[in-house]
Model the fold of this input.
Amino acid sequence: MDLLQDLPKYKELLEQYGDDLIGFITFIQGYNHSLTHREIVFLSRVKCPGCCVKEPNMFENAPLVALWYFLFRPSSYFVYIAKNQEKEKLFIHGIRLLLDYLKKTEHAWILNYIQVKQNSISIVDSYTCIRTKSGKLVHTHLAGFNGPDLMIWIDQHKEQTHENMYIAKGCLTAATHRLVLA
Done:
């Protein structure tokens, strides 16, 4: 069993934000930030198991959704597929900024359980992770990402090759898997 999941303060955090993506985003971005109606509808759809959401121009929400999914879906995988390495780097940078913000909150303790690498973020002693991939996909890039909780976020999906889309969609084998075409 994961060390993080055994902590009472993690259970409290999970209870507070586990089913509340919008509440988590409001907490992370500050209570003065307001979401547009379009963002609220998008985020309400993304959090549902089994969703397939097609909404262009939502890149700025990718790090927020990834962090929420990562923290509150034990043994989950979030795979971010970008058209190029620049977008991939921006995505990871966005998550690092969010983690820096968490350092300044009462939830800073959770950072002791998070490992950040160049193109992945994971929870210590867990299968929960965020991975990024840019350029051409090969089926082995996504091998092993078939647990009960998988979210694949494809940025600039209209610019992705047919082969990349086919490989990514082929990983969605469970009714709970989520796909976002941004």
Summary: The chain has a mean pLDDT of 85. Residues 83 and 160 are 6 Å apart (CA to CA).
